[in-house]
């Protein structure tokens, strides 16, 4: 059967979101220093790998996000890959909060941005490139260093948080 030449039915925003929701992702918190006394951070599931050599990653941020200007000017930042036990952090960093970092256990590394305790992996990145893509800005970063820990990652699927279950081989 040959492909239809007629225009496909319009794909509205709801259908686009519902179709995307079938794609399970991990969940990260991306952080950077905004000033001497302040960090920014937000929950992101747009994180993904791009290139192995050099090691590049990507993520996107809404153009109306409060933390956009700080992240656009950050030369270094961290990507914290959340563990299954960190749903509360995923909520905190995606909702209005007086101080998202208050009471959060973190340390600073090469990127001078929070490396949050209890995660299953951490990347410290150098800014590589960014471009406006629709209502988001697409960021590509070079992963300069990283670490991982044992544990199950947090997963976002069908608009809900979960974790992985290995299937029998
Ligand atoms: C699981 C999950 C994943 C998200 N992923 C993204 C993302 O990749 N990009 C984005 O712009 N917002 C994403 N958000 C929404 C932001 O975390 C949220 O809008 C946040 O408040 C933005 O930071 P701001 O407070 O500085 O505006 C996600 C939210 C959730 C719950």
Summarize the structure in words.
The protein has 169 residues and is mainly beta. It has a single domain (25-154), classed as Electron Transport, Fmn-binding Protein, Chain A (Pnp Oxidase, Chain A, Roll). Helices cover 12% and strands 44% of the residues. It has a 7-stranded antiparallel beta sheet with strand order 3-2-6-9-10-5-4. Strands 1-11-12 form a 3-stranded antiparallel beta sheet, with no helix packed on it. A two-stranded antiparallel sheet has the order 7-8. Strand 4 (48-51) and strand 5 form a beta hairpin. The model has no long low-confidence stretch (mean pLDDT 96). Residues 27, 42-46, 59-62, 65-67, 90, 94, 156 line the site of flavin mononucleotide.
Topology record:
Elements: H1 13-20, E1 25-26, E2 28-35, E3 38-44, E4 48-51, E5 56-62, H2 68-73, E6 76-81, H3 87-92, E7 106-108, E8 114-116, E9 121-133, E10 136-148, E11 154-157, E12 160-163
Antiparallel strand pairs: 1-11, 2-3, 2-6, 4-5, 5-10, 6-9, 7-8, 9-10, 11-12
The structure holds flavin mononucleotide.
The site of flavin mononucleotide (FMN) has 16 residues, from β3 and β5.
CATH architecture call: Roll
What would you call the shape?
globular
Instruction: Give the SSE string.
Output: HEEEEEHEHEEEEEE
Strand content is 35-45%
What's the number of domains? Answer: 1
| First-last Cα distance | 35 Å
Fraction of residues in H or I helices? 10-25%
Spatial ordering of strands, largest sheet: 3-2-6-9-10-5-4
- Helix and strand content put the structural class at mainly beta
What oligomeric assembly is this protein in?
single chain
Uncertain runs: none
How many helices? The count is: 3
CATH homologous superfamily annotation: Electron Transport, Fmn-binding Protein, Chain A
Strand segment count: 12
How would a textbook summarize the main sheet?
Answer: 7 strands, antiparallel
CATH topology: Pnp Oxidase, Chain A
Reading off the top of the CATH hierarchy, the class is best stated as: Mainly Beta
- What is bound: which ligands? flavin mononucleotide
Q: Roughly how many Å is the radius of gyration?
A: 17 Å
Mean pLDDT: 96
């Amino acid at each position: 059967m040959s492909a239809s030449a007629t225009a496909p039915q319009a794909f509205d925003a709801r259908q686009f979101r519902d179709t995307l929701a079938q794609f399970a992702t991990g969940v990260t918190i991306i952080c950077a220093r905004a000033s001497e006394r302040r960090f920014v951070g937000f929950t992101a599931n747009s994180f993904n790998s791009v290139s192995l050599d050099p090691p590049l990653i990507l993520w996107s941020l809404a153009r109306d996000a409060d933390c956009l200007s700080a992240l656009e000017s950050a030369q270094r930042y961290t990507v914290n890959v959340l563990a299954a036990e960190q749903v509360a952090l995923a909520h905190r960093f995606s909702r209005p909060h007086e101080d998202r970092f208050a009471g959060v256990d973190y340390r600073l590394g090469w990127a001078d941005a929070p490396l949050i305790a209890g995660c299953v992996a951490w990347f410290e990145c150098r800014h590589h490139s960014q471009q406006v893509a629709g209502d988001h800005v697409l960021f590509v970063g070079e992963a300069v260093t990283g670490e991982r820990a044992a544990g199950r990652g947090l997963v976002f699927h069908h608009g809900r948080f979960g974790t992985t279950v290995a299937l029998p081989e």
